[in-house]
Amino acid sequence: MAVQHGVASFVRHLIWPMIFQGCFILERHCTSTLSLFTFPMEPDDIVRSLITIVGSFVQDRLLDQRKRATLKEQCGERLAAEDESNNKDTEFRYSDQAVLANLDWGMDAFEEAINTSNIETKMARLDYAEKMLQVCAMLNTSDKTAGVPNCYLSAWAHLNLSYLWKLRNNATNVVLHVLEMFSVDPFFSRIDFAPELWKTLFLPHMSSIVGWYSEERHRIMMDLIPDSADLSFNVDFDLYLDESLVFSMRPDQADKLQNLEKLYGQSLDDNTRLYTNYFKDCMNYSSATSKRPIPMLPIAEPPMTPLHEVNRKIPDYVKFSPILPKSAGFSPVQKAKENTRETSSLSATNTSSENLLDSDAWNNRVGIPEETEDSEKVANAKQEGNGKEEARSILRLQSTRDMDFKVTTSLPTSPQVHHDFSINSPDLNNESKEQPKSVRKIFAHGDGRNSGYANVNNEALERSFTRENDSRSPNFGSPQQFERSTQSRPPKDFVCPITTQIFSDPVTLETGQTYERKAIEEWMKRGNTTCPITRQPLSANVLPKTNYVLKRLITSWKEQHPDLAHELSYPATPRSSYGSPSSGQIESTYTSKTSNLCDDKNNGDDCCNYKPRRFMQATVATSPTSVISQAAVEAIISGLKPFISCLCTSEDLKECEEAVLAIARMWKESNADPGAYACLSTSEAVNGFMDVLSASLSREALAKTVYILSELLVADDNFRDVLTSVDFDFECLAALLKNGLPEAAVLIYVLKPTFSQMSAHNLVPQFIQIITSKYEDSKDHELLMNPKDAAIELVEQVLIEGDENSRSSNALSIISADAVPILVMCLDKVDIRQSVLFILLCCIHADKSCRNLIANRIDLCLVLELFHAGNENLRGMCIDFLSELVQLNRRTLCNQILQIIKDEGAFSTMHTLLIYLQNAPMEQQPVVASLLLQLDILVEPRKMSIYREEAIETLIDALLKKDFPNLQLMALDALSTLSGHLSSSGKSYTEAWLLNLAGFSKPYEAFMKNEKLKMNQKELTETMEKATSSWEKRVAFVLCNHEKGLIFNALEECLKSKSVDMAKKCLITATWLVYMLYNLPDTGVRDAAHKSLLHQFIYILQSSKNLEEKILATVALRSFISDQGALGEIGGYAEVLYKTLRKLKRSYVVVSDIMKTLMNLPSVNAAEMWSASEGLETDSSMNGEVLSLLDVKGRVLSSHSDGTIKVWDAGKRGLRLIQEVREHAKAVTCLYIPPSCDKFYSGSLDKTIRIWVIKPEGIRCIQVHDVKEAVHGLTADANFAYFFSQGAGFKVFGWSGITKHINLKQSVKCLDMIGDKVYCGCSDFSIQEADLQKSTTTSFYSGTRKLLGKQSINSISIHDDLLFAGGTSVDGTAGKVFSVSSRAVVGSLSSGFDIHYLAVNNELIFGGTKNGIIEVWLKERLTRVVSIKMSGIGKITSMASNAEGDMLFTGSSDGKIQAWELH
């Protein structure tokens, strides 16, 4: 009988469709028109035909939006095959799901491109769609992604890419992507994606295969029909076949037909690939350029294996497992028709007879379900009711061959619980290590946009019931019946088998059964040592922890079914009922918890709407957990009355205290019986309790009184009215709390006081004291909640309802009491985790430095659990908290925290953040985007990341919202923190860092000094700087390269803002990005940067009155001058910029770089850029001629012919004499200062050389050396002095007193040195080089002497490896510039006057002549920029210029010193 049933089932589900299908194939094949490809054609002709046919098909799809939507729904149903999955415990990575989400996002972007008329938007969306679709198109087709065969995803992606290239008018790519689709997955391509195109391109080539199939099928069918010898080959089997004939089919005949169908489908797939490769070769072939042979048309051959020898193993085809969150866009359409659920909830029904050809190929991947007898009966009934049309096999993507509809469990079946897939499974309870996987499995199919417990419980529950129905009747489960059952009762997994009410505090025993904590506690207190249902012995006397997974599921279900939950709720047990406020309450208050933590309207005295749902009103009824007889309850109530009477009437305080103790004990024994409640809730009894509270000194009596009153308040919320009607004084409770009774905090919390009440009594210090103290529960009674938990809840209420000042003050009190570490430890408690997190966040806002303390102690997994399980507002609070933690001054620690956030938890934090970002409130988006971006770039930036793209896009959008300036500021703050330059207080010091780069180092040095003092480790600071440098390079790279520098356009708009604060923040961010851009490899976005920002920086430099803003602008301009494109634009502003830059030049090194570059531009006329103004003149004629001048750090040293050396202060108003020294007996002919500038040397005609030290207060001679000869010129180093006197050569004088003569055969007129070489300008117009190490002399330069007149080198100066020489003017050239290293002539100094003195600084060359004219050349270009005429003074005897080049000092023969300002 069982065999007959099996054959009948097989015939019903497989044979009938095959018969109808086979007939249709023959008819279709015989009547179809011949394709162009059935005739011999050249490759070029085939290409044109392919482009025409495929292009027409794609064009039709583009015009038919409904067809595309239908296809997406159909494919989405296949992908969302959850309930029929075989491997339900498989754990999938969210990276896999992100790939699937990319496919959906790509299709959405493509649809947006179709629907928009803006060309730029269309192109941008198409580019984005291509990126997303390529992710799936390039998958390894032999692998799977989240249980889905990659070939299916890749084929679908290629189809959409063909649409995309059609919009771009690229016909070749359209065809190639369509062909790739058929090559990757021919099966689904001809069934789902493009069946009509397959019939046009491929079916005409399959005639031999179709013929073979028809012949073999004909042979089998002829065996079934009596007297079939006279039938023709093309006979219509419908005329002869009926149901009785099909039911008479033998099992071996059914096997043959099944194997034939599979082999036929495989042949179609193989030959589809064969012809696809041929078409590809044709597309890639070019008769003009290709050297390959012409592609040969393949021939489709049918299988050669005889039918009776087909014994190959049929592979286990694709099995799709649960894969997608709903956020990925695949929303399966739940069909209401019963026939869509006959075989599987995962089905795709043929909608027309024309698609029957496709359905035979499906049989390649469809097994035969093993049906039970009951299901067969239902199927028979269904078959009889619906006829042949209903009997067609529903095509399924998932094989049902291995599905097991039987429930396998070792758990004994209870009367109330049937076959159970619930969370109480032994696999979950006995193997605790597997619990996280189960949790992930349950929630993996929730809405990705609200990926938390609250949004997935019903779906998980519905799947559980669907499986239960399927286990009894797998193919004919009734959705209507399921709806009625779920609406009339809660899920059985949520109901305690003892109380028959919904769990409040579920605990799962070692036997696998779950009970209400209070119920099982009472069971065990009565001496029972076995499980109530299984009767298995219990080895542990202590109950396990709460089953939080189940508890969260129940909480979510209650929120969705409040009425049903209220009816079936059990009066909450202490641990579950008196926890933290629910997520819903946090939702209502969190919008005021961050920067604007609470609106002003919540600060009034009447703000009394803070009603935690921890204590929901309980129905006063007989406790279902109690197994005490009614007589025992009545006896307890009778026993209560004398004690209540004593409490109300006795004048003896001790008697009243003893009565309270007895009442507390009996109340606990009564299990909150309504009768006991009625006795205790009278006004007289309450007065008695209050008298005890106000008069008693017994801690035990006071604690028991608090216990009783709090129990009564929770038992009935109306009891609050009774308390307020009597002489209840809140001040009494406040006094008890201050006197050290922590239990009073519980009663205060249950009373729901207002903020004004708690503020009036200043209770926050007492709450903090309770939090920091250790409290142990009494063994005699158990309070509704731990006093520490109550104190935390009350502190949260105070922080929420207080204004900003009170919130900050209270948070600082928490920090000063050292309560932060204890609060961090309290995060382990699920009930108060939200409250603790909010308090910690307030502490961070009040004192940023405490974030380091929190970061070093916190377990981030607890915060991530709250984030994943919470709703939108709760997630917002978690994100604010996590964002604060990653703003530490130690980059390495920040990266560690980010890595934990990224890796920990059962869910993908990045994926959840991405979904939350897309739905987050506008004011939270910059923070979320910043956190998501930091998580993405923990590793080296990749070529593409959907997380990064979405995050940066969000930040840019925020910057562009001009109507929301606060949002723009938040985005700028987020970008500032991304740079990684953060102080210990979490503030960005990017500005100080940039100013330091420009030479304005005071802010940065002050910051670093402060940071080093705090960390007290120099090595740690260096490590921090290295980590910060690496981090900011990654951040800058991804920001600058997003959409070809789109962020620069957004920053340009912000720089134009009229808000001073916004413009300053934007300037800092823009400067930092530009600086980093030019320190990174050029990726082609520099043009976008300078086109957007260059003019803004120039405007700021010109117009801003803020020095720091000007310096920041110069840092950016310094970066731009290395770009030739930007430099050309800067040159147009050269004259205007130069005047502004000169004012900054003295202090900031970047300014000099810009000025040098500007002056060297060919388009800039240097002569027009410079001018000189005469400064104040100083008369020192009483000291004779001014023979030498030196500029030293803002001071000028002058030597005179009477042996005097003077020190002058070179201020803006002229020279001011500081010191005058006369230690030389004769004229001081020369002064020389080495590069160290710590000392200088003076040479005199008195034949001595003196060494002087330079101090702030003046100069002082420290050594005097007698050199035996008059000194006319001098240079020196640490070991020797080199000087020349009258006569040939020069002398080398050792400081030890040894003198050596270097003979050069010519008189030396000047000398200078670099390294161990001395260069001498001689009277024969040559420059001689003396190598002191080798003691050799060589000619460095030999000038061309004129026949008439004397030519000589009068002055030389070595600067930046260049030797500048000035002397007699020959042919309009009075000086030359040489490279010291190569001895090559670099250029010449054009002048018609002889140069007697040279002075060189960083930018300019000054040449003094005898006739009082000073020529000024640009150092880089050697272009004369200005001539200065000295009037009214004698001839020039000496010159000196400051390092900045904006001041020139000249000494004359009549003892005057003239100052000139260059500008």
Characteristics:
31 strands, 49% helix, disordered N terminus, alpha+beta, four-stranded antiparallel sheet, 1463 residues, seven-stranded antiparallel sheet
Please mark out the parts with pLDDT under 50 across 5 or more consecutive residues, or reply none. 1-39, 82-89, 305-488, 571-628, 1016-1020
**How many extended strands?**
31
How many H/I helices?
A: 56
Alpha-carbon distance between the two ends? 112 Å
Structural class, judged by helices and strands?
alpha+beta
**Structural shape:** flat
Description of the structure:
This protein is of the alpha+beta class. 49% of the residues lie in helices and 13% in strands. A seven-stranded antiparallel beta sheet has the order 14-15-16-17-18-19-20, with no helix packed on it. Strands 5-31-30-29 form a four-stranded antiparallel beta sheet, with no helix packed on it. A hairpin with a 6-residue loop joins strand 10 and strand 11. Helix 1 (2-31) crosses helix 10 (207-224) and helix 52 (1107-1120) packs across helix 55. The radius of gyration is 46 Å and the shape is flat. The N and C termini lie far apart (112 Å). Mean pLDDT is 75; it is low at 1-39, 82-89, 305-488, 571-628 and 1016-1020.
